[in-house]
């Protein structure tokens, strides 16, 4: 069984399946297909499937010409028909793992995908969960569902592992193809075949660990590390504002130390799928062990309240100009969760907008990458301003920068605005700073 799989990998005879064609799944499917493996993408959304099969790209980190070439040659295709799982020898599960309304892990996408796969799983197939989750998910949830639905035995009839996605949208240097891959497999044979498969299409190297639980916790550690450090710097920013100290200059000064310090930066909160959510997965899981993650939970509270803190700062700035927040026109620059991407998932800018509206402000937004967004809470679609003009900037009582897109003309912003509240230090290179207030 193992030897046959290794031979099929070497001869590029493996048919790969990727379940979930979003920010993680589509780039992964493209990399596999580029390496010479016929790849089938599975998704429940017919719109995504149609776009891929017509060579239409919808993920910024995927090269449109590469996608068009792969779909045109037949190396990559997409389907909503999960019965085609029977064709595959390697399956990567790349589905969302959100929080529910009670801020608890929602594993319904993983569970549904596992059940769908199990119904068509054949012997000698490699299955890898890539969706971020808490330790124990692969072994305690995915494995039983696959075994029950397929009547196959893990380790004997199929191979199973967890390999955390490491997608950083907009990162120019590191993408799916050249980022090191962690693999935690159930058994040495599974480790060998799955690591061999990843090495066949990834250039960043593969690092095996001893169990799925190690790999699952490793991913949680990556993002919790960032959450805690961002929480620290956000709290320092609030303190420095009260003391009349420029936090951005403090960070720049600390960054001159060649060892022992890594710069993190404050902002209106955390966004994206991983960093704001992963600590919640861990803090929920550790309740089983009567353990309280006090440092992690404190950082989460600090980061969660940053949108409200930013709105309070906006209100204070307007008060200095004898203006009330209620009834004021506020122009928000940027609704993507970070610079130079079109991803609004968990964006703190949207939370800032919602709090501003709740306080009675008239809110407009401009984002060169995001023309409109659907609010997760009320389901409404909000459209942005089509152009950033002197008239638009001049009409606002205050401009709030919540995303530091590099293509924005910040000289124009400074010149045309009455007052600017810059939560990202996006205007650091603007010489005239009389009307700029920093977080």
Question: What features would you describe in this structure?
Answer:
This protein is an alpha/beta fold and 439 residues long. It has three domains: 2-208, 3-Layer(aba) Sandwich (Rossmann fold), CATH 3.40.50; 211-263 and 277-304, no CATH class; 306-439, 3-Layer(aba) Sandwich (Rossmann fold). 40% of the residues lie in helices and 14% in strands. It contains 15 helices and 15 strands. The strands form three sheets. Strands 3-2-1-4-5-6-7-8 form an eight-stranded mixed beta sheet, sandwiched between helices. Strand 4 (90-93), helix 5 (108-118) and strand 5 form a beta-alpha-beta unit. Helix 1 (2-10) runs parallel beside helix 7 (188-201), helix 8 crosses helix 10 and helix 8 (212-243) crosses helix 11.
- Class computed from helices, strands and strand pairing: alpha/beta
Number of domains: 3
Give the helix proportion (percent range): 25-40%
Coarse morphology: elongated
Tell me the major beta sheet.
8 strands, mixed
User: Total number of β-strand segments?
Assistant: 15
CATH class of the largest domain: Alpha Beta
Largest sheet, spatial ordering of strands: 3-2-1-4-5-6-7-8
> What name goes with the CATH superfamily of the largest domain?
NAD(P)-binding Rossmann-like Domain
| Percent of sequence in beta strands | 5-15%
Low-confidence runs: none
Radius of gyration: 24 Å
How are the secondary structure elements laid out?
Layout: H1 2-10, E1 15-19, H2 25-34, E2 38-42, H3 46-53, H4 64-73, E3 76-79, E4 90-93, H5 108-118, E5 125-129, H6 137-150, E6 158-162, E7 181-185, H7 188-201, E8 206-209, H8 212-243, H9 247-254, H10 278-285, H11 294-304, H12 306-320, E9 329-333, H13 348-358, E10 362-366, E11 372-374, E12 381-383, H14 390-395, E13 398-401, H15 410-416, E14 420-422, E15 436-438
Helix pairs in contact: 1-7, 5-6, 8-10, 8-11, 12-13
């Amino acid at each position: 069984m193992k030897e046959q799989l290794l031979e099929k990998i070497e001869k590029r005879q493996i048919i790969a399946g990727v379940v979930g064609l979003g920010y993680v799944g589509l780039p992964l499917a493209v990399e596999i297909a580029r390496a010479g493996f016929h790849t089938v993408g599975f998704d429940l959304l017919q719109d995504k499937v149609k776009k891929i099969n017509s060579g239409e790209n919808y993920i910024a980190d995927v090269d449109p010409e590469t996608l068009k070439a792969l779909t045109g040659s037949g190396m990559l295709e997409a389907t909503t028909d999960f019965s085609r799982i029977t064709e595959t020898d390697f399956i990567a599960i790349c589905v969302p793992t959100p929080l529910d309304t009670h801020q608890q892990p929602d594993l319904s996408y993983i569970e549904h995908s596992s059940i769908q796969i199990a119904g068509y799983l054949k012997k000698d197939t490699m299955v890898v969960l890539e969706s971020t989750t808490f330790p124990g998910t692969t072994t305690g949830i995915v494995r039983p569902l696959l075994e029950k639905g397929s009547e196959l035995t893990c380790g004997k009839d199929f191979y199973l592992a967890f390999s955390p996605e490491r997608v950083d949208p907009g990162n120019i240097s590191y993408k799916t193809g050249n980022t090191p891959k962690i693999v935690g497999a159930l058994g040495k044979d599974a480790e060998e075949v799955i690591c061999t498969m990843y090495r066949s299409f990834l250039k960043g190297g593969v690092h095996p660990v001893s169990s799925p639980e190690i790999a699952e916790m490793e991913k949680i550690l990556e993002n919790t590390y960032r959450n805690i450090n961002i929480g620290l710097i956000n709290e320092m920013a609030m303190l420095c504002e009260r003391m009349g100290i420029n936090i951005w200059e403090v960070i720049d000064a600390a960054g001159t130390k060649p060892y022992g310090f890594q710069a993190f930066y404050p902002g209106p909160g955390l966004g994206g799928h991983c960093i704001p959510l992963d600590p919640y997965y861990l803090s929920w899981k550790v309740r089983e062990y009567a353990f309280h993650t006090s440092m992690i939970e404190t950082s989460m509270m600090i980061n969660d309240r940053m949108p409200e803190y930013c709105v309070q700062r906006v209100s204070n700035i307007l008060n200095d100009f004898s203006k009330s927040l209620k009834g004021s026109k506020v122009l928000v620059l940027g609704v993507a969760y970070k610079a130079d991407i079109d991803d609004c998932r968990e964006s703190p800018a949207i939370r800032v907008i919602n709090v501003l509206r709740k306080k009675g402000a008239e809110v407009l937004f401009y984002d060169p990458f995001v023309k409109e967004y659907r609010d997760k809470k009320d389901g409404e679609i909000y459209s942005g301003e089509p152009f950033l003009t002197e008239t638009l900037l001049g009409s606002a009582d205050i401009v709030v920068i919540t995303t530091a897109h590099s293509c924005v003309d910040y000289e124009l912003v400074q010149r045309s605005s009455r007052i600017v509240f810059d939560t990202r230090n996006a205007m650091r290179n603007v010489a005239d700073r009389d009307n700029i207030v920093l977080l």
